[in-house]
User: Which sequence fits this backbone?
């Protein structure tokens, strides 16, 4: 990230399925952030299982901070920040939102309309069908994930 990179508007987009335990980490964070006072010009959205219904958000915002879960073999609760430019740069996701979101990113890239994306991924151990909460490992890192997302959002909108 360039130190002078700022945007007039920014969207924090939580992705995931609340009915699959840790796979819903992005949605859980979006819901927590919706209760906070956010920096000016920063919006938050529970994007659910993603897909083409999110197209207008990708086109309306010059920059997105996305939060999603991944099965990447790292210890559960590991947080990484990526700057994907192509659909193949996204780590492996676990549910049906993977296909629609990858297709959306690829299509917008081809059309030259893909916004800047900062992606926070949280490593999870397994899918938890029909479980609404988060595992202790993922719940423990939620304050740190929230801190990192808000810190980046503030940096990306300061001075714009």
Assistant:
């Amino acid at each position: 990230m360039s130190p002078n990179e700022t945007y007039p508007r920014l969207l924090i987009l939580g992705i995931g399925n609340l009915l699959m335990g840790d796979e819903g980490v992005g949605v859980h964070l979006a819901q927590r952030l919706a209760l906070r006072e956010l920096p000016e010009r920063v919006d938050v959205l529970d994007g659910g299982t993603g897909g083409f219904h999110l197209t207008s958000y990708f086109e309306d915002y010059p920059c997105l901070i996305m939060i999603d879960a991944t099965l990447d073999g790292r210890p559960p609760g590991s947080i990484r920040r990526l700057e994907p430019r192509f659909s193949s740069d996204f780590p492996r996701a676990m549910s049906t939102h993977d296909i629609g979101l990858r297709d959306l990113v690829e299509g917008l890239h081809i059309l030259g309309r893909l916004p800047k994306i900062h992606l926070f991924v949280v490593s999870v151990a397994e899918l938890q069908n029909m479980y609404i909460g988060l595992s202790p490992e993922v719940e423990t890192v939620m304050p740190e994930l929230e801190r990192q997302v808000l810190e980046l959002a503030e940096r990306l909108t300061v001075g714009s």
